[in-house]
Amino acid sequence: xxxxxxxxxxxxxxxxxxxxxxxxxxxxxxxxxxxxxxxxxxxxxxxxxxxxxxxxxxxxxxxxxxxxxxxxxxxxxxxxxxxxxxxxxxxxxxxxxxxxxxxxxxxxxxxxxxxxxxxxxxxxxxxxxxxxxxxxxxxxxxxxxxxxxxxxxxxxxxxxxxxxxxxxxxxxxxxxxxxxxxxxxxxxxxxxxxxxxxxxxxxxxxxxxxxxxxxxxxxxxxxxxxxxxxxxxxxxxxxxxxxxxxxxxxxxxxxxxxxxxxxxxxxxxxxxxxxxxxxxxxxxxxxxxxxxxxxxxxxxxxxxxxxxxxxxxxxxxxx
Length: 319
Fold this sequence. Notes:
This protein has no helices and 16 strands. By secondary structure, the protein is mainly beta. It has a single domain, classed as Lipocalin. It has a 12-stranded antiparallel beta barrel. A two-stranded antiparallel ribbon has the order 10-11.
């Protein structure tokens, strides 16, 4: 059976919804929650246009009165070519996220008079996020399994200020490898169990001075600027279990786990962990090429990270 499901290839960033913002966490590009039912599979040959509307709201006790509202629109174009590599369909994808980030928090500063001054900080901005390019996508389609693998990167095209803990971009290049699969246990493929893994590795971003020669504690001649964001990695795992209830309508449960390993001197959100779960409904419209999916996920785990909720409305069209 020809697979007409278009899995999401994204960034966000989130921000959000990272986009991360991109996400509220600097250094994390892939927006966990962009994939869901059958996200571990890629579609068959063709050209696909997709648009994700990603909404995120989160709060945190790590900063006073921290609130983050993020909306990311993630238009992307995928081309799954008729060419084969290692027996797999070869494709490519590009996403250009547009992000609205309204994040605010408060800082308190002691004055010489003994009074404490409240300072409101944050960002309220709309603009281009970091663009994601995936030049390598591989898809294998078997009788009861689909598998996917890919390589992509984010370019630092979004607005970034190293003095701010919230930005539209991350100010650095990020490489990513993706591996996933879907298992269809029954003959009609009405049941589907999916898993998708993302492994991110960041480059450095301009920032501060570590010391003479750029080494901690010295060890060189002259002051050399080094990154405020030490290269870090992020692991994201998205999963889904679904059942076809009527023709091309699927309902299911989806979720994700994301862990980030980094140090950013200007951010309290270091070495973060988040996990979420929620429902999804997805429908294909046979003969039209259209697919629509609506997903909600609640973050029940948030360590060193804002805790929030994600809603994603995805619309795709095959040409």
